[in-house]
């Protein structure tokens, strides 16, 4: 089993930047794709960005493309989401999640919100 813990959320002004971290513990991280998902009040959870086991393949939702960057450091068991040019509509609880790499492509993982393990989430509020 894997355990995922998000950190780095908070309050930021529109146009600002923030980096979320996802610390992963457990066996076999290298066999899992990792994704960032978010859920705003009254909305369904959606895939933001997903990354393959080696980091060689990534997927971004259209709403964050060009502003967010996902990366992973397998040696540190950590996945990051760098968020720039933040907008009020980015306000949500952000979750990181893991899915065995053989189960789906990173696009499928994000688009279909598929994961086996979930963190508890970190709140991001973008407001002036």
Question: Topology as H/E string?
Answer: EEEEEEEEEHEE
Secondary-structure content class:
mainly beta
Number of helices: 1
Helix content: under 10%
**Percentage of residues in strands:** over 45%
**How much is the radius of gyration in Å?**
13 Å
| Uncertain ranges | none
Write the layout of secondary structure elements.
Layout: E1 2-7, E2 10-12, E3 18-26, E4 32-39, E5 46-51, E6 58-60, E7 68-73, E8 78-83, E9 92-100, H1 106-111, E10 117-118, E11 122-126
Parallel strand pairs: 2-11
Antiparallel strand pairs: 1-3, 3-8, 4-5, 4-9, 5-6, 7-8, 9-10, 9-11
Brief characterization of the structure:
The chain is mainly beta. It has one helix spanning 106-111; strands at residues 2-7, 10-12, 18-26, 32-39, 46-51, 58-60, 68-73, 78-83, 92-100, 117-118, 122-126.
């Amino acid at each position: 089993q894997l355990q995922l813990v998000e950190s780095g959320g908070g309050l930021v002004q529109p146009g600002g930047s923030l980096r979320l971290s996802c610390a992963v513990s457990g066996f076999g991280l290298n066999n899992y794709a990792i994704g960032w998902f978010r859920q705003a009040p009254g909305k369904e959870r959606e895939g933001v960005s997903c990354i393959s086991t080696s980091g060689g393949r990534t997927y971004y939702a259209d709403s964050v493309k060009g502003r967010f960057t996902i990366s992973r450091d397998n040696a540190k068991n950590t996945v990051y989401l760098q968020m720039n040019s933040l907008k009020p509509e980015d306000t949500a609880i952000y979750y990181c999640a893991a899915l065995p790499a053989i189960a789906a492509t990173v696009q499928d993982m994000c688009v279909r919100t598929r994961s086996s393990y979930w963190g508890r989430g970190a709140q991001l509020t973008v407001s002036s």
